[in-house]
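## tool: complex_structure
## caller: assistant
## args:
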Amino acid sequence: MNQFLAQHGNEILEASLEHIWLVGATMLLAIAIGVPLGIVVARKPWLSKPVLGSANIAETIPSLALLGFLLPVPWLGARADRLTITALTLYALLPIIRNTAAGISGVDPAVREAARGMGMSGGQILLHVELPLSVSTILAGIRVATVLTVGIATIAAAVGAGGLGEFIFRGLAMVNDQLILAGAIPAALLALGADFLLGIMERVLRPVAPQHKPAQ
Amino acid sequence: MSQLAKAQPGDDVIIEFCRAGYRLGGGATLLNNVNFSVRRGETLVLLGRSGAGKTTALRLINRLVDPSEGEVFVERRRTVDWDPIALRRHIGYVIQETGLFPHYTVEKNISLVPRLERWTDQQIRTRTQELLTLVGLDPAIFLKRYPHELSGGQRQRVGVARALAANPPILLMDEPFGALDPLTRAEIRAEFQTLQRQLGKAIVLVTHDTGEALLLGTRIALMEAGELKGLYSPQELLGSEEPVAAAYVDQLRALEKFDRGGGR
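## result:
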């Protein structure tokens, strides 16, 4: 064990950093796309079927196949990390869009009516009322998406984008359990760590009042 | 319709409905050919059952909806010519569920419009304290509380304070006391009467409760099925021999008893 770590420690560290970069870039992109889409879906309910439906379909494509499909796409296929981040983003979108839409539609209509009646603009209502009130729901979606992405990112090694999947694929090829675990355990730890950190954020950013309607 | 109860035309008319109607996209008529006006310093009560169009009439005033027919004037200007944001900042709005922002303290709730209007910190602090005192809550205790830490009656008071924050000349109240228990309701109503006299604002108050209408209204507008059935002073309404009004009062009283029995 110690010998294995001494031999592969640096490699594991490097692969973990690659993994974190892939997941981090994916999440930034997925949040940048998913949260606005979720807001749009909450505003225009007729968009909910096509948008959530497409995100759902993306979710059902096996990850290896998705990488394969994207490979021939001109700009995307040129670099392995580009390709991987795009595929991972497609997977991460669904929980983020869904939770953002649910969080915003879940804001008490009386609160929204009052905000409008007081002369807040649509942007002010979004920024000062709707987003703060749905931040914990949105973060819960981001949390699910992050854990999901840490797992799926191991596939990236198949197209040469690096990450902890390298060990898993190498271990599979060499029938070496130790190598597989050298990829799987840090990946699991990463997922747990991300889950833990986002859980803390969720609690810290939650609006002070409970979301349920107080008893009259 | 009684001549006495009609508002006299003059400069103090602040809200005016001219043949105003509102129709949903699907064709359902929520409000039809409504005419009335409200003067500074008076409280017009819109009285009627659920679905009578009372809330729709209220929402026409602060332009949460635009009339499909006719016109609504606020300070002699058609609402559709007002910038909706400017119009709403000019009008206090209190709704039954209060719509207090659950993530804001009482202080932040009350000071929202002044903050949007970029008052100075000092002005805002003075104003919030003044308002809380006005609605009978001790600022030292309540400023830093969140809505879920308040009772129903306290929330309603904060709702009124928030609506008054930027000192609007008009106050719209949609069943403001509807969600309160009878004792608290009676207490807040009595305080509201005092407040009415102090403030001298034009108030439009929606209720389905005849007793409340008689108690708080300078004039009472009876509404049914989207139409205005008549305008009365409280005395006129009580003593009215017009069959519609009399029947309506009886009917509403019966309904009110039923409501009491059924809770809400």
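## assistant note: The interface with chain B takes residues 108, 110-121, 124, 129, 132-133, 207-211, 214, 216 of chain A (CB under 8 Å). Residues 211-216 of chain A have pLDDT under 50 and may be disordered. Handing back to user.
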